[in-house]
Amino acid sequence: MPAHNEISVVTGAFGFTGKYIVRRLLSRGNSVRTLTDHPERLDPFGGTVEVSPFNFADRSALVRSLRGASTLYNTYWVRFPYRQVTYEEALANTRVLLGAAEDAGLRRIVHLSITNPSEESPHAYFRGKAIVEREIRASRLSHAILRPTVIFGTEDILINNIAWFLRRFPLFFVPGSGDYRLQPVFVEDVAVEAGEREDNTTIDAVGPETFTFEALVRRVAEQLGSRAKIIHATPRLALTLSDIVGRMVRDVILTRDELEGLMANLLVSESEPTGRTSFSSWLEANSATVGKRYASELARRYRAAK
Ligand SMILES: NC(=O)c1ccc[n+]([C@@H]2O[C@H](COP(=O)([O-])OP(=O)(O)OC[C@H]3O[C@@H](n4cnc5c(N)ncnc54)[C@H](OP(=O)(O)O)[C@@H]3O)[C@@H](O)[C@H]2O)c1
Q1: Mutate to test the pocket of ligand 1, among 10, 73, 111, 112 (most ligand atoms within 8 A of CB)
Q2: Which of 53, 71, 150, 254 is the most buried (most CB within 10 A)?
Q3: Pocket of ligand 1 (CB under 6 A)
Q4: What is the CATH number of domain 7-151+185-205?
Q5: Gap between the Cα atoms of 141 and 137, Å rounded
Q6: Residue 137 pLDDT > 60, yes or no?
Q7: In the chain, where does the domain assigned CATH 3.40.50.720 lie?
Q8: How far apart are CA 217 and CA 4, in angstroms?
Q9: Half-sphere exposure (Cβ direction) of 213: Cα atoms closer than 13 Å
Q10: What predicted TM-score, i.e. pTM, was given to this entire model?
């Protein structure tokens, strides 16, 4: 955690994880700036966070927006390629951001990656994350690289939308065997981990409970009192069905990369859990609201401010 008089820059302060990191920094008395393409989103910090655009195409403007800060908390990445923003573009933009942070004289980067990134991965998301990690380690900045699994919290998308499906449809299709695992981590626990560390480190940010995908779906169904029948489908059929519903809600619900990553057990860690909050207790406490509304990635990014 930076000293009280230091300035931190957090990407995406009005998004998901960034918001919780900012909240924690502000509660510790730090000054915070954010980089975002969505300055119009609801500002939960009452104007106390200074806002600049990402400015990837204008490096000197980006350096100016970082100058004077000590630590960059980087959440920037793309969940899936859409319109002009591909993984290659995200990687190039991250390089620009990293170089600008060095030029602006920042001391440290706290970077959100993903569990099990690999430059040999067949999945572009995991491959890109591994390349970014290598470049951060080679940079002049001290670094904490946090590798979360699925992050849950009020504003998350995956868990919320599993609940939305279970509330809305009579059937829920589990892709394949459903015995692949995931280890959800609470967004506030990720923010705590991001703020606490001062060493050069790469660490999985994972919750205390591991579920098979099917067990997680059944746990959500049980908490909601959903009567949806949970049945197995081939991954291909599950993706086709999610595409059809995706068209109805004008979103990309699940990508092939995400499904294959999940089914390959890439969202689970061999390390000791770092997060303390159990998914089960969070779900119980939030069962009245989770999944009441569909959470749309595309609406958040490209349509009305949400
Ligand atoms: N959410 C999860 O379950 C999860 C799991 C494992 C790892 N992670 C990693 O944790 C980090 C934070 O995730 P999050 O869910 O909290 O992300 P988020 O708030 O949706 O977005 C994080 C930042 O990336 C920018 N961004 C996202 N998609 C973009 C796109 N298509 N084009 C341009 N900019 C984009 C956002 O810009 P704006 O500020 O303009 O919105 C924001 O600054 C990411 O690096 C993600 O890969 C997330």
Answers
A1: 112
A2: 71
A3: 11-12, 15-18, 36-38, 75-79, 82, 85, 112, 114, 148, 150-151, 301
A4: 3.40.50.720
A5: 8
A6: yes
A7: 7-151+185-205
A8: 43
A9: 24
A10: 0.96
